[in-house]
Amino acid sequence: xxxxxxxxxxxxxxxxxxxxxxxxxxxxxxxxxxxxxxxxxxxxxxxxxxxxxxxxxxxxxxxxxxxxxxxxxxxxxxxxxxxxxxxxxxxx
Length: 92
Fold this sequence. Notes:
Distance between the termini: 57 Å
Number of strands: 2
Strand content: 5-15%
Number of domains: 1
Shape: flat
Order of helices and strands: HHEHEH
Helix content: 55-70%
């Protein structure tokens, strides 16, 4: 657990740093952040619970959602298709 929690701690600190540097402390203080962590589709509920616990010990508080990697890939593809369908390009 310690290695996984250490990994999530470093990841959490990096995310906080990027958000802080991008949006500022005032903005961050007023926001409730949600986190999505992908896990392999074949992982058991026990491994998913382990991942959630390691993320929590690493600093991820509040809403943490676990999504399987195939679900995440499908959602990204749907989003990209929607983005491409709504873009208009100039042909000049």
